[in-house]
Amino acid sequence: AMVLPVLVPAAFAFKLPLRGRAALTLSQREFATAITVCKSLPVTTQFGILPTYSARSHSGRISRLSFAASMSTASAEEGSKATDNFDKNGRIQRSFTLPPIPGVPLQHHTDRYNSAVVEDEILNSSSTTREEFKQLLEESVTKWKAANVRAVWLRIATEASELIPEAIAQGFSPHHAAPDHVTLTAWFGNGNSRLPGGPSHFVGVAGFVLDRVTCANGSVTDKVLVIQEKSGPAAGIGLWKLPGGLVDPKEDIATAAEREVREETGVEADFQRLCSILENHNVRGPGREGTTDLFCLCFLRPRHSGARVTKQEEEISECRWMDVEELKSMPMFQAGVLRRMLDTGLAVAEEEERRGGGAGGRGQGLTRE
Questions:
Q1: How far apart are CA 369 and CA 88, in angstroms?
Q2: Among 19, 25, 229, 284, which one has the highest count of C-beta atoms within 10 angstroms of its own C-beta?
Q3: How confident is the model at residue 216 (pLDDT cuts 50, 70, 90)?
């Protein structure tokens, strides 16, 4: 808060390009103060804040927040518009669109990266002919280049897919695809394209559900919820593993972990903490070649001790509560990634127990805010 009022006006006065990324760690109070100061500066700052890590204190409050900020000096008018579009945590609420390049026949808008984003209805219509599209695209590309536009994003609906070869012929390359469209890009800037690549990561979750059971003789036994797959890479080999699967689009990791546990075993469990992330660059299977898998190990507590398990008939052959010691004794859990996952889950569970986090309910390690 003390540095920003000096740094930003100085950068403006001396025409310094204040651009780049800064990694900071602030408490919630410091974070709120920094946002307030930035909004009050005569020369405002346009910046995007991306939380990268949060640490939960004993009380469950997020005590420290790390974030990365991308900054550039802006006019007071632009800056007020920009900061007004940040939420209470400093995250961008919506993207900004700038006016189109005059005289370009294809409807589009530009953005703050000096790119053109085409949003013309002819790209959604099967009645658009290739010849018509060819002429419009050629003229548009000429005017974009004359205006020093660095890149163009072109989204073509599947109904108009016959236009794709024409776009490729004019220098566009496929970027990514969805059931209803294909997105292509063209780079007109200097050197190699600096546009971000297409989707490159899959995010999965594994639910480490631990039930601490007190026996009649007073002893305590830890049981872990495990499954055997009916289909998939672990099917038919007698491997017990944690329930889990891929995160759905726009689904929170915490919600995904709870959902996968519930779907595969019928057990209602509450997310407590993110234990670790396993990174795999050697993903196999059609549609996933060349991608990276980020597998999130999540610690959950069952809402009811000794909860009855009900396997998902389509995908799961067996599921049950298993003693931790029995699981440790199995060949696949003697070493390697499965043993590391088990040890990590147990360590996190023990830490939560020491903190007094065994009262039930959802934890605050990841939140929707």
A1: 9
A2: 229
A3: confident
pLDDT in tens, 293-316: 999 999 999 999 989 999 999 999
**Strands 115-118 and 151-157, how do they pair?**
parallel
Residue 228 has φ and ψ, to the nearest 5°, of: -120, 135
Model's pTM, two decimal places?
A: 0.68
What is the model's pLDDT at position 150? 97
Q: What is the largest CA-CA distance in the chain?
A: 84
268 or 10: whose pLDDT is higher?
Answer: 268
- Amino acid identity of residue 52, one-letter, is T
- Which residue has better confidence, 175 or 17? 175
Torsion of CA 159, 163, 164, 169, to 10 degrees: 180
Q: Determine the Cα–Cα distance for residues 342 and 336; give it in Å rounded to an integer.
A: 10
Q: What is the DSSP letter of 87?
A: -
Round to whole Å and give the CA distance between 14 and 18.
11
Residues sharing a CB contact under 8 Å with residue 242, sequence separation 6 or more, in sequence order: 206, 207, 208, 209, 224, 225, 226, 227, 297, 341
Query: Exposure string (b/e) for 5-38, b if CB count within 10 Å is 16 or more?
Result: eeebeebbeeeeebeeeeeeebeeeebeebbebb
